Amino acid sequence: MSREERLAALREHFADIMGVHDQLATQLEDARSQQDDLRGEVEQLQRENETLKTSSLYIATVEEVNDDEVVLKQHGNNQEVLTNLSPRLSETLEAGDRVAINDSFTIQRVLDDETDARAQAMQVTEQPTAEYGDIGGIDEQVQEVREAVEDPLTNPEQFVEVGIEPPTGVLLHGPPGTGKTMLAKAVANETDATFIKMAGSELVQKFIGEGARLVRDLFELAAENEPAIIFIDEIDAIASKRTESKTSGDAEVQRTMMQLLSEMDGFEARGDISIIAATNRFDMLDRAILRPGRFDRLIEVPEPTVEGREKILAIHTRDMNLADEVDFADLAGKTEGFSGAELESLCTEAGMFAIRDERTEVHTEDFEEALEKIDRDDSPGTPIAFH
Fold it and tell me: On the CB side of 232, how many CA atoms lie within 13 Å of its CA?
């Protein structure tokens, strides 16, 4: 074999060796990557294993704090214990704090204040868009609510100068659809206050004590977000007249009402928190919740008069393309007994007739056809229905 042939063979052998080297290097890199993944998985399993070995912690409330000792009440069994206090917590721990303790009743960490998530969900984060101009036919009621709710929030100094306490609460009662809820929203919009809305039925819970706890959390939420307005719709669900019923359900509803009465009596700085309630069944309410000091103003929101119906029709049609011939006074005379919500439905139905005829302008005959379409029972308080 010549020198050139040997050199070519060596070069070919070297190329084969480099190819094997590159292949092994790639395999080594893959193995290292897989090793890192397995190492991470092992560390995670070790942490999970340590977590499983760790004893569960218990929730307790601090009853009393001394220099180096603390009295705790464990949740669930209400067992009270006296235990040593860690120096790192002696300056920060206060009575009423929620803490996590181990089997030896040693405080492991301080927990955040407890607030029911259902209470937080009732807080209306977006400001209501309703305005007083959107409400017609109840000018006197609007003025009374503004005096009782809006003025203490926007101008509390005038009550101090006069030397009186602001009204503690307002109860709106009247037939459905007369504007009670919209009135509460308008007040919240004008005062720029935190608006917390709930229905009375939401406070009726299944288990003993849950309804009362939810009421307490709602008032604490209002205190943390002052100025605030608490609006309780359909309050008759929890504030109906107490009876001698022995069922657990009725007893729980009464416990919830007792908590509500207690919270209303416990308010001191009334200028920052106002309560508005609404009901369609004023006759069902318990006398205890109607006494002065809880609801100082009982405001009836009746069905609108003929002048009120004319204003309501103008409000609900201000964005509609109406023909010049439409006469609100004539329509108001033909809609006796209609509530504000029913008048709004009437305007919508008239607009639907214009759309059906492929028109963009609503005429008087559209309202007349909408009136003819109404299937109304003459019984008092019976709502209208379009058939």
Answer: 26
Cβ pair 152, 166 in contact under 8 A: yes
Contact 313, 344 (CB under 8 A): no
358 burial type by CB count under 10 A (0-12 exposed, 13-18 middle, 19+ buried): exposed
Query: Is residue 230 a contact partner of residue 267, using CB atoms and an 8 Å limit?
Result: no
- Whether the pLDDT of residue 238 is over 60: the answer is yes
Q: Please state the three-class secondary structure of 245-309 as a single string.
A: CCCHHHHHHHHHHHHHHHHHHHCCCCCCEEEEEEECCHHHECHHHHCCCCCCEEEECCCCCHHHH
Question: Residues 6 or more apart from 40 whose CB is under 8 A from it?
Answer: none
CA dist., res. 361 & res. 350, Å (int): 10
Cβ distance 182 to 130 under 8 Å? yes
Give pLDDT, residue 270.
47
Q: Do residues 163 and 174 lie in contact, with contact meaning Cβ atoms separated by under 8 Å? A: no
Is pTM beyond 0.70? Reply is no
